[in-house]
Structure formats: structure tokens, C-alpha cells
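1st attempt posting a full record on here, be nice pls
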Amino acid sequence: MLRVVFIASLLLVLSECSSAKWDANWEDTVAGVPDAKDIAMFDKKERNGICYWQGGFWCSPGNECDDGYRYVASSRQNAYNEWAGDAGAFCWFGERWLCCESDKVKKNPKTSCTHGGGQNCGAGKTLIWWASWNEENLCCEDGTIVP
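the predicted structure (as C-alpha cells):
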């Protein structure tokens, strides 16, 4: 009986999908499903400042930051950086990288930065990014990134 229900459901879905391509207003029938234009918008690298989030919609940053940029840190959270803006939604599979202009990164982030919690880093540290979902943050020694 379960097979019959499954096959009937599958046929219904396939028939809806195949008929949608002939409908002039098919986009209205699949509302809420991201199309290539939506995905391209999420994958667009916003360079409003000296950094950007690498990874976009799929949370898959690839192998390295773009030429002229250096890896600073990664996050699975909806993190915010003052130079790169919002990272986007939580990454269930993968992570996003924060990449900053190489000449602005003055210290090694692997040794001068630590993960913590909250919006305050303490004396001698600068808040690099903060995630509101779980209060996770990245704090680096002052002078690590100089805008």
C-alpha cells in the first residue's frame, strides 16, 4: 500500500512539473523555490568594504579567496562583519569564509584571533564578526585588520 501511495505522489509531482513548463505564468506556480537568478544574487560577492563573504547560497567557499584577498576566518552562522555585511543564512552543510584585502590584514588571523561569545571582545581585541543566532563571535588582537 505504501508503494502505491508513493508512486501516486510521484506521478502527481511529475505531472505538475511537466505541465508547469508550458504555463506562461509557471513562475507563480512554483513560488518560494529559488531559481538561478535568486541563487546568483546570493552568490554575489558584496564588496562594500575591505572584506567579503566567500561561499554564498551554497555555503561552499571553494579552495581559496579571490586574488588580492586573504582568508581571515570561517563561520556557519548568520554572521555580520562591518566591512563585508551580512553573511546570509545558517549553513547546514559547509561554511562561509571571511576574505579581506591582503594588504589590510596585518597579523596572522590564525594566531591573533579567537572565537568567543557576545558582542564584546575585551581589552586589546577587536570584534571581527558576530552571529546573532547563537552569540558566537570572532575577536582579533587590535591591528589584525586595519581598514
